[in-house]
Amino acid sequence: MIMLHHGTGSRSFSLLDSVPRQTTENLLFRVRRVLSARGLHAGLRLLDTVPFDLYSASNDFNDEFEILYSEVGLEQYEQIRATASALRAAAEEVATVANEIGNHYIRFIAVDLTEFTPEEWDVFVCYAGEDRPAVVEPLVNALESAGIHAWYAPGQVLWGDSIVQKINEGLSRSRFVVVVISDAFFRKNWPQSELRAALMSEIESGETRVLPLFVGNEEEKNRMLTSLALGRDKRYLSWLNDPTAIVEELHLLLRRGRRAP
After folding, report:
1. Most exposed residue of 132, 159, 193, 196, measured as fewest CB within 10 angstroms of its CB?
2. Which CATH architecture has domain 121-258?
3. The pTM is what?
4. Rounded to an integer, what distance in angstroms lies between the CA atom of residue 16 and that of residue 18?
């Protein structure tokens, strides 16, 4: 764990409960406004770079306080570790403003490395092979760099593996299914079968699983929307040759799933 800020007293803590999402977002919105007004750009960059959650916490002395905490992927963790000295000044700005304007006492700001097992995935990526170089590979690389663990066929289906078995495992053990929908998608039976399986799982569970990502110009996208019933019901994103917005949206979904209602 990388400790970016700690207040007075004991440096030990135990996370208790996550603070409701709306409370966290309201606090961080107000903190950003104040940081911007004061020209404290280092603190702003920290909040824009690291997806912090707010938790209630305690320690061996039964002190009660709150902590801004984030779990990130290995690449981002190493980037933070390498620049921790500079980031501590930014974290100090964030904590000072948060404690000044909110009904909160932020004693710690910390970053930890995401823990996961190969049997658990955040996202299954469903796609046609034609979209792999230009869309899927940049997207998967960005997701992994951000600590979002993606099931991606070339990396998970090894020589001699049963393709059907591995795909079934990926679909069943992934929280979300990102469906890359393009003209090529409609020409391939396999990704359409994956989409149908994911939609059936979504219907049975009552939880959102299928996340449509459309690839193409406006004319192509409108044509594809009319070909899919889900296009009239679900909010979708469009591929704009930059995965940043997709990563941010997935972070919000995954954080919502971890937080208490």
Report:
1. 159
2. 3-Layer(aba) Sandwich (3.40)
3. 0.57
4. 7
Helix (H, G, I), strand (E, B) or coil at 213: strand
Question: Helix, strand, or coil here: 119?
Answer: coil
Count of residues in the chain: 261
pLDDT tens digits, one per residue of 55-79: 988 887 788 888 999 888 777 888 8
Closest to 80 in 3D by CA, of 136, 19, 1: 1
Nearest-angstrom CA–CA distance, 261 and 249:
18
Q: At a CB cut-off of 8 Å and minimum separation 6, what does 71 contact? A: 111, 112, 113, 114, 115, 147
> Read out DSSP for 27-52?
HHHHHHHHHHHTT-HHHHHHHHHS--
DSSP-derived letter for residue 162 is -
Write the single-letter amino acid at 150: A
Cα 6 to Cα 87: distance, rounded to the nearest angstrom: 13
Cα gap 19→16, rounded to integer Å: 9
Q: Torsion-angle region of residue 163: left (phi > 0), alpha (psi -120 to 50) or beta?
A: alpha
Strand pairing category for 106-113 and 121-126: unpaired
